[in-house]
Amino acid sequence: MKLRVVELLLITTLPALFLASEGFPSLKITVATLIGGTLAAGAANAFNMIIETDIDHVMGRTSKRPIVNHQVTESQALVFAFGITILSLAIFWIFTNELATGLTVGAIAFYVFGYTVGLKRRTSQNIVWGGIAGCMPVLIGWAAVTNSLSWTAFLFFMVVFFWTPPHFWALAIKYKDDYAAAGIPMLPVVAPIAEVAKQMWFHTIAMIITSFATLWSAGQPSWSYMANAAIAGYFLYAMRGIKTSEKSALRVFHGSITYLTLYSVLLIVGVLVN
């Protein structure tokens, strides 16, 4: 499993559970959603590694993955991927509801077929639309509680949607030679740094706007807007220099993780003290 990716997915699942519950969510639903979500993310990542074995051989960043190093065979990985997919869906079906289960199926399918097979090797906007799969835990968490969706859930979904490109493009700036060698047209590979920075700034501003819209839709307390402004200011500060310096890429990458974590904590605290 890509543990950092799984951690980020869980970070956005928790506030969705709290928001949908308007307080502490059911322990049963929380545990089931977090375990089921972890297994679903692991399954999607396992399918991804099976499909991308050819490019993982080329990229230094991925050259130590188990299939590449012959620690497991592709057949064994496939059995593992299908196994934890079934287990994940069973957990959602038994302990949550059909909507959460269906959204989980959609998230896995979109990541595997929409992103890995369809978009990643074909367009420089791969991570923009492929990132939809990474936003799905928000909707899954909400649906697990209510068996429905709401505008608040979709707005939080959009926060993660706009957060995704700056996060992954920052990483792609650092590893653009790896992506170029593997023939993956990540935006930093095919466009000058100034154009990459322009698009990163666009998504960052859109993320901040939707973050405030989510607070409003969720009925968060007034102090949360000031806290969100401070968190947003932190990330804007992390973005400084991205237009002229590739060395700032890791600062943006780590800053984006900190931003999403703090924003998720803010949403939870806002629910509990409102």
What would the average pLDDT be, to the nearest integer? Answer: 93
Query: What is the CATH topology classification name?
Result: Tetracycline Repressor, domain 2
The helix/strand series, from N terminus to C terminus, equals HHHHHHHHHHHHH
Number of helices: 13
Domain module tally:
1
- How much of the sequence is in beta strands? under 5%
What is the highest CATH level, the class?
Answer: Mainly Alpha
Structure classification: mainly alpha
Report the helical percentage: over 70%
Spell out the CATH superfamily. UbiA prenyltransferase
Helix and strand arrangement:
Layout: H1 3-21, H2 27-51, H3 53-56, H4 74-95, H5 98-119, H6 126-130, H7 132-146, H8 151-174, H9 176-182, H10 187-190, H11 193-217, H12 223-238, H13 249-273
